[in-house]
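Renewal narrative, Specific Aim 1. Our central claim is that a sequence can be written position by position from structural information alone. The example that follows is taken directly from our test logs and has not been curated for this report. It begins with the structure tokens describing the chain, in the order in which they were read.
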């Protein structure tokens, strides 16, 4: 006899719209992997005089198994699932912009430029009306975010159209388009070890239908955690909705 205390790596394989796997993501740090196997009871009650209200038969029937899973690893693919979204790569190549029109620059109000990751060196501005040069003290720039605004009390504070020239550096990464994928179907695999025995334990969930079960707090004071919950699906060709293997 032994207890069960698991340490394990979790892998996730999200299915595409046609039900095909897209590849395992992981190993992930899952802070929760909870499986619930609910049931309901069907009773045949007696209406006889001597046993009225007693159970003549009772059958327990399995209901769809449920899953709750939480992660504090946040690769883009997992964060997208928690936001019902899709991912796409970001590729911004380095380039130069000359005389880009910026409409009505005002003090106190930022204007978003078409690019981010802008180089501080080489940025210059001229008035759109006559191409006269504008001193750098007349505006301020958030180079990383690609924002510009007029300096309070400066030459542009009343609001002017300008033309801006600048260089921007290359950016690579990923973008999540949230709220566009209401259905999340995935395979889940746990490669674990029972710390009580040192023996391997594996859990295989061939198919789960999932949805976010809590908001994603992007400004949380702790590491961002995402949670998914849903039902385990009896996938075609499988004998059970999930399997748990323990080596002796």
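The sequence written for that structure reads:
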């Amino acid at each position: 006899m032994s207890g069960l205390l698991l340490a394990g790596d979790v892998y996730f394989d999200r299915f595409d719209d046609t039900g095909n796997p897209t590849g395992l993501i992981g190993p992930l740090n899952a802070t929760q992997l909870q499986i619930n196997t609910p049931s309901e009871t069907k009773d045949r009650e007696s209406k006889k005089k001597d046993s009225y209200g007693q159970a003549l038969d009772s059958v327990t029937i399995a209901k769809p198994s449920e899953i709750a899973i939480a992660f504090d690893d946040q690769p883009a693919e997992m964060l997208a699932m928690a936001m019902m979204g899709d991912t796409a790569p970001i590729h911004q190549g380095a380039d130069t912009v000359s005389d880009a029109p910026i409409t009505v620059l005002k003090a106190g109000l930022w204007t978003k430029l078409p690019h981010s990751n802008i180089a501080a060196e080489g940025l210059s501005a001229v008035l759109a009306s006559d191409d006269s040069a504008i001193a750098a003290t007349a505006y301020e720039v958030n180079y990383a975010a690609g924002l510009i605004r007029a300096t309070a009390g400066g030459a542009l504070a009343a609001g002017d159209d300008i033309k801006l020239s600048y260089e921007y550096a290359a950016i690579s990464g990923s973008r999540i388009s949230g709220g566009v994928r209401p259905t999340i179907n995935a395979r889940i695999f746990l490669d674990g070890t029972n710390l009580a025995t040192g023996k391997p334990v594996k859990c295989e969930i061939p198919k789960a239908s999932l949805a976010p079960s809590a908001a994603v707090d992007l400004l949380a004071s702790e590491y961002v955690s995402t949670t998914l919950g849903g039902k385990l699906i009896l996938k075609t060709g499988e004998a059970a909705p999930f399997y748990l293997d323990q080596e002796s």
